[in-house]
Amino acid sequence: MSLTDILTILLLSAGxxxxxxxxxxxxxxxxxxxxxxxxxxxxxLGLGLLLAGLALQAESWTxxxxxxxxxxxxxxASSSVAHLVVRTAHRRGIKLWKR
Amino acid sequence: MEALTLxxxxxxxxxxxxLMWLAWRTLASxxxxxxxxxxxxxxxxxxxxxxxxxAPDIALAEAxxxxxxxxxxLLAALAKLESGSKESQPLQESTITKAMVxxxxxxxxxxxxxxxxxxxxxxxxxxxxxxLPLQTIGLSETVAENLDASGVSNPVTAVLxxxxxxxxxxxxxxLLLALLGIWSLxxxxxxxxxASGKVLDMxxxxxxxxxxxxxxxxxxxxxxxxxxxFQAGSVLAAAGVLLLLTGWRPGVRFAGLALRFALVMGLAxxxxxxxxxxxxxxxxxxxxxxxxxxxxxxxxxAATLSIGITLAAxxxxxxxxxxxxxxxxxxxxxxxx
Lengths: 99, 337
Description:
Chain A is mainly α. Chain A has helices at 3-28, 32-56, 61-91. In chain A, helix 1 (3-28) packs antiparallel against helix 2 (32-56) and helix 2 packs antiparallel against helix 3. The radius of gyration of chain A is 17 Å and the shape is elongated. The N and C termini of chain A lie far apart (49 Å). The model of chain A has no long low-confidence stretch (mean pLDDT 90). Chain B is mainly α. Chain B folds into two domains: 1-126, Four Helix Bundle (Hemerythrin (Met), subunit A); 154-337, no CATH class. Helix content of chain B is 78%, strand content 0%. Chain B contains 13 helices and no strands. Chain B has helices at residues 2-28, 32-52, 56-85, 89-131, 140-146, 155-163, 165-185, 198-221, 229-245, 252-255, 257-279, 292-316, 326-336. Chain B is globular. Classes of the chains: A mainly alpha, B mainly alpha. The interface between A and B is small, with 7 and 8 residues.
């Protein structure tokens, strides 16, 4: 097993961990705002780590470029959509959670 | 290697189980909005299942049309249902209570009948699956042998636009008919969108050019790799849906004849190519070998535009208001009555 393979495994595992954390947050946090906060942030970073791990295994630069493009699009879409959902929730008068 | 096969087997079982569960939840959920969201999740996982079955063409179509656009259409329909039901709620309640009275005795019989029918259906399905030969190659060898004659190197495109071009031609016609049905059911009206906000505007501005580019890429790549008119068209339609959501409307100049022309173009080009071939002495939908690739690209390009615009128009739900003419004034008069 080469160094690249080990790095890939580390990156993929770290990515999976972030996805797991995001999902736990989605299920366990008390209101829509905190849930989306957990999901969006953790998944954005998790996907970045996953794609970085995959990019190390890529055969050509065009594949790396495509993976990067996927990540950028995902960042754009997920943060915008999170904003839209939260804004709608706020307008409908869903209260912020307080301890 | 052993562990890897076990892992992929475990993945497939989980995927299949989740699909069944999602399908059940989609059908059983009382809340329509929840049902639609579950349906979209079902479509995305279904696309994953197609990828596992080595069918990237269908996976693309499922993700773009099945999950994406159908989801958007269902949500648009739900929004209309909700705005409609606010006005007619008392009526609905009275019909529901009437139905409840008649239900109690008929209900058991009805359910029994349903269970029997479903059991017969499941038994038939099981019989069919069991009677299938274990190893089958179907028509894939025949397609592979004749691939050179089709003008493209992607077998899926070869089947869809050459060997079985009838199917695709009729699909385009069905899509157009669906739009005509919707247009004739609802009179043109302005949809009131709430202000979309800066973030959605920004996102749309960035995404729409990219979506058009991806659509063109999918169209072009369809000749030799997974892609094609329906996938490209649905990506184009996604751009249209985004634009419509931000409050963009086609200018009055384009909403009439130009729009109609764009809608029928895909079908028209297909039919014209077919008829010209007949007139030149060939058979219907038979492409000469030297032009087959170009004909397919021409048909697919026209079909992509038409599919994209038709799907976006389906999302819009009504005819866009045409420029003032005697016909439209009559209609608005009828609406007032």
